[in-house]
Every structure is written in structure tokens, then in C-alpha cells.
Amino acid sequence: MSIEIKVPALPESIQDATLVSWHKQPGDAVKRDENLVDIETDKVVLECPAPADGVLKEIRQPNGATVTADQVIGILEPGAVAAKTAAAPAPPAKPATPPAATPAPKPAPVAPAQASPAPAAGRDLPLSPSVRRLVEEHQLNPAAIQGTGLDGRLTKGDVLDFINRGGTPGPASAEAPAMAGAAAHAPSGTRQDRRVPMTRMRARIAERLAQSQASTVMLTSFNEVDLSEVMALRQRYKEKFEKEQGVKLGFMSFFVKAVIEALKKYPVANASTEGNDIIYHDYWDISVAVSTPRGLMTPVLRDADQMSFAEIEKTLADLALRARDGKISIEELTGGTFTITNGGVFGSLFSTPIINPPQSAILGMHTIKERPVVVNGQIVARPMMYIAITYDHRIVDGREAVLFLVSVKDSLEDPARLLLQI
Hints:
This protein is of the alpha+beta class and 422 residues long. The chain has 10 helices and 19 strands.
């Protein structure tokens, strides 16, 4: 009896989603719990697993379709065997003429257009929409990525692994190699445009940024931090910390702790707005911006004030990995009371971060640069970072914002304050 393949339950408040990419085609064999299709919401990409072993009989909603929860998108025939794998391969035909006979005339050469590439190479095979989008967004050469899918096809995981290993942009586009080759031989000075629709997630990010600009009165204040003591502390204990805790001691745990101490002193920076009301939060759920192939996400460290340095690093590493793999839940991305964003990982020296509504403030970290500073009357080189707080001036005054930054600065320049909570 056929089984209907349905869209899984969508996160609360999300009405519909986009069917991004089928991983199987009608007639393909599938295994139970194997991911059949990716479905993208405003925040996360959901997987639709096969309910049983069998064959994908029918696709009712194509790639790019808008779908709703529990909508039937395909039909699975359980227990069936794919026709293309059921038949045994035919034995090679015997030559009509014995080897001792007069040699047969040489076969005509095969036209290059008919030559088939080796399946293992996986380079002339079509790219799925999700893979094509990743390749285009990161300007990668698909020929440089090893495919692990059927017949050597590139999978989304192949591309993400390539990016995480530090893969660099290539000259080829996401089109088939034949087209890439044609573009490579195009006359110098050729001008081309590529129109790519926004993904649902990118459109949602754009909507929220516009909402933030339109609904808040944003102002940014700056300061700079000497990170000598933090770097010395990390250098002194990094090996022992990693050995005992199983995670590297990064900068983010120091910043999370410093931010929490500052928020306790200036709670309006930890507040949010709802209409004409200010909602003060007596807990500290810190959102940390993470860059993913599908756009910026802000997973939340719940009750971050109760976490140790190791717990912050472990939790953040897990959230960031699942965010990049599209396996994070909508609940893990919502409800933060304050946000930290680190443009320094990309080399940003100075920026004005945008508030993550309905929060009232956001801290921006930047790259660390050795700069000459005056210490005790002497000019010395120190590892310095510019930090910024963008705040909603409707509810946060300049005095509170500036003193918030000073508190963060003081905690980081004397990390013992974080342990003593002073």
C-alpha cells in the first residue's frame, strides 16, 4: 500500500515553507529515515525522512514550490525494488568473428559530445538546487569538490565540508562544466548578469533588518579594549583547558561573561520592547551571531550567567555547527535578550552592528590588531580591539550605553573581575 510523504510540522508562527530540493527522483530506491527532501522555512531547513524502505513512486510538489504543514508532496511504494537496480547486468556479447579471423574494420571515432565522463568524477552531473545555490553564493568551482553522492554527484554536505575546510572560490560557476568552459573562453570584457531569487531565509533576514531600521532609534558608541591579559590567560591555560574540558578556550566565553556582568549593572540593555512597554528580563539569554551558508543566524545561550567558560564554549560550538548544517531548531534561535556579533573573524576593524529586534542593544566585536598605546607613560604595542554597542535610544540613554561598554572593557582588561564578579 502506498505511503504519502508529507511536509513535517512547521515551527510555531510559520505558515508555509519552500521545497528546496528533492534528493531522490521517481523510481529511485530509498531507505527508511533517509532524507528525501529539504524544506526551508524563514529560519531553518527541515529534512523530510523516508517513512519506510521502498521506491519513490511520485513527486507531487517540485523544487521551489511553496508548501504547508502536512501537505502531501510525494508517494512512496514500500517494499518495492527500484527497476534500475532489480535487473542483473547483461553479460558482454561474444564477438561474431574469432580472433584469428580477418580483423574487423576500425570503429568510427566517437564524437566528443557523446563521450561519457567517468561516474566517479561527478563533474558533468547536474547540481541540485540547494547545491547550486551554495556553489553560487560562495563562488566555488564544483570541479574542485569531491562528490560522494550517487554516481559521484555533489551533495550539500560535500560543499559544506569543502567550505568548512577552507575551500577557496574557483573560476568556474555553478553551471555545468560545459557552460563553465564556454564562459572561460568568452571574449575579454564580456558583461553578464545572473538573476538568483532570494532564499526564504535571506528574504526574512532582509525583512528583519528593515524592520529594525524602521522601528528603532539606533545609535552606536565605541570603545577599545586591550586584550593582553585575556590572551596571556588563554596562552597559559589553553592546553590544560582543552585536555580537561574537551574544547578550546576561545575569546567568546570571555566576552559573554563580560557582557553579562555589564547587563547586570545596566539592565535596560537587557530589555526588549513590546508596543509602548519595556520588558525587563531577570535572566540572561545571550544570542551569538553565526554566519552560515544560508545567512546569518543567532542561536541563543540560555541562562548563560549560570554557564562555566567550558559550558559556553561547548554549547556555542554545538549550536554553530548545527546552524551551519541546517539542523538547528527554531526554538534555539529565538528568545535572546541581548546579542553579540563578531565581525572580527572576517577581518572587520570597525562597524556599527544592527539591533536584533525586539532587543534593545547589541555588542559588536572586531578584529584584534597590535597598535601603539601609552601605558604608564611609555609607548608599547598591545593587542587592541574596537568594540561597539548599538542601542535603541528610545529606551537606552547614552550614559548607560557608554558605561556598559566601559564595564565590558574593564572586565576584559582585568579578567579576574569575571571570577570575582566585580
